[in-house]
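Format notes (please read before filing issues)

Several people have asked whether sequences and structure tokens are stored in separate files. They are not. Every record keeps both together, in the order shown below: the sequence lines, then the token lines. Line labels are part of the format and must not be stripped during preprocessing.
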Amino acid sequence: MGEFVEAARHLRARGVAARFLVAGAVDHGNPAAIDEATLARWRSEGIVEFLGHRSDMPELLASCDIAVLPSYHEGLPTFLLEAAASGLPLVATDIPGCRRVVTPGLNGLLVPPRDARALAEAIACLLEDADLRRRYGEASRRIAVERFAEERVLEEYLAVYREAGVLPG
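Then the structure lines:
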């Protein structure tokens, strides 16, 4: 999350007028979680808005122009799937889980992990180009439906079970 805050700082310093939102509760049981003092400092800066836990993600995503996930390691990131299904252009780190959802040049941009400047540039690229955001968002929605719709995923599971002989072919 530090890279997201730093990217927001870079963009604000360049005069970019955008809201930078972070949704999700702090995982106090995770030793890698951001400590309270750092969160308090970031909150007091006012560059990023920390929303806490949200149970209205479809509505929140509908109010956004870009979805950003600067992660270090992911399985298949639910947040990117939800954002893609919402028709948003995506910015994420170039790691295996994110690569399954983000196809650079088609529905989003990938940046190196822990690179706040590259993250800022990717966000700026999309903020400055409404047509690119629209095209990437449309592609995100199409990818979500074609690759990750529940029916499609369930059919793939059933195919594996059939192939393994657990279910009749």
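For reference, the curators noted about this record: The chain has eight helices and five strands. The chain has a mean pLDDT of 93.
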